[in-house]
Amino acid sequence: MIEKIAILTDSGSDVPKEIVKKLGIFVLPLQVNYKAQSFSDGVDIDAQTIYEGLKTEVPTTSLPTGKVVSETLAKIEKQGYTHILAVVLSSGLSGTHNMIRLMADQSKLPMRVIDSKNIGIGSGLSVIKAAQWADEGFSFVDLADKVEDIIDKTKVYFVLSTLEYLQKGGRIGKVSAFVGQTLDLKPIITCNDEGIYTTVTKVRGRKGSLTRIKEIAVAYAEGGKNINIAFAHGNAMEEIQKIKTDVLSRVQNVRNTYLGPVSPALGVHTGPGLIGIAVQIED
Predict the structure, then answer these.
(1) Contacts of 86 (CB under 8 A, 6+ apart)
(2) 224 to each of 72, 132, 202, how far by Cα in Å?
(3) Based on the domain organization, do 192 and 262 belong to the same domain?
(4) I want to staple 199 with a disulfide (CB 3.0 to 4.6 A). Which of 123, 187, 268, 269 is the partner?
């Protein structure tokens, strides 16, 4: 039997919309919840709307709805796929992985759910590779193994303009946020081996933090034979374009580059001004 493998992810993996369309990736939207109304991440709300409303109300975020997951699984089956590989944002940061794993029991097709141990485009790079490899004709078993392997070689680094929204969302301690704001310290954040936020280093000031995040990303890429790099931003297009140009001038063997905004749901927790760089070593 010829296998036709569907790649499934969530909107918190920040796969650029043009790549989703090109590779036929199925995306489950997280929920952005205001007191008056809930929205589907990236479907009926955009990041700009989030940022403009933060001073009035900081919304909460939640998992994709069970209804949307069920409908998406049915749609995949209807389109003639034989298997489903789900690559989703870190289980250490969201309950999405666990929810989809539980709902996989409903799937009439063989389905495997992989924890990217990453967030945003750090997770997205692994999703994109999964879709590319599926197109190349790898078997379901081999594809899942290859994705598990590349997750270990994929890192995301990001720096925020303010720690206020991470703190409000319970993603960072109040003391850390207070100290950071008082001293203008900007932590450069990544995900550790368990997929949980950890600080690589702290740098004073915006300019210094942007210089340092570039150095860290370039150092991680050093020596890799095939490198995929992605750049993400929260309403900071001018800065990210300059950073992209600088980083690409210093990294050799780059195969693919991507650039896009963070999803509205991630923007809730990071606020405007986020700069992110994800590096994947594909050897």
Answers:
(1) 7, 8, 9, 100, 104, 111, 112, 113, 114
(2) 37, 20, 26
(3) yes
(4) 187
Predicted confidence pLDDT, tens digits, the chain (283 residues)? 789 999 999 999 999 999 999 999 999 999 999 999 999 999 999 999 999 999 899 999 999 999 999 999 999 999 999 999 999 999 988 999 999 999 888 899 999 999 999 999 999 999 999 999 999 999 999 999 999 999 999 999 999 988 777 777 665 654 464 555 666 788 899 999 999 888 899 899 999 999 999 999 999 999 899 999 999 999 999 999 999 999 999 999 999 999 999 999 999 999 999 999 999 999 8
Whose tokens are 């919309």? That residue is: 17
Asked if residue 147 and residue 14 are part of one domain, the reply reads yes
Of 115, 69, 79, 71, whose CA–CA distance to 5 is shortest? 79
First to last CA, the chain: 30
